[in-house]
Target: TetR/AcrR family transcriptional regulator
Amino acid sequence: MVGLQPTGWSWHDGSMAPKVSTAATKAALLEAAREEFAAYGVAGARVDRIAERAGVNKERIYGHFGSKEKLFDEVIKEALDDLTAQMALPGADPVDYVAKLADYYHTHPDLVRLLMWEALNYRGQDLLAGQEARVERCARKAASLAEGAGEEPSAKTARTLFMLTGLALFPAMMPQLGRIILGEDADDHAALRDQVAAFVAAGLGSRPDVPA
Model:
């Protein structure tokens, strides 16, 4: 259980009761929800389990987030904010960017599962409300790649960012396929990461003439 720590004491019905801050309640719910959604996805997650793990009444979930779906969106946002805070823009060194991104996904399998559940839950839909910040963040990354290559931002640099992200993410998304293809070598994350980085270096070094 994530649980909550009292921040003080307050009178309730004539007796002293521990008081927990609103921020602490929200943080506990997000942490509990991240575990629940990573394990069960949006459809399979249960608000009562999230509330129990966080140590609060489940009505707090609706009070803070409005719905289970909005809570999931907030969990995704927070997880990606954490990722962004630890990653430099890719333009200066896209090879190093891919290697570090692969390391991050490898050490944060819950984020990988959240992204997969998001793709399954919202497949075929248009851009969701509230995702403008993610669009802008990706646009900055693509612009960084373009600047590093001495180009103007274009659909080509956006596709490059998409492919770099996919190369870093795929091994963490498909561990069972890795074990089928690589056998015991599937456990050697460093070797796989380094080969992905070398593949990116070779691809970007040759820079084939791709239409924008």
The chain is about 70% helix and 5% strand. Residues 86-206 form one domain. The first helix runs from residue 22 to 44.
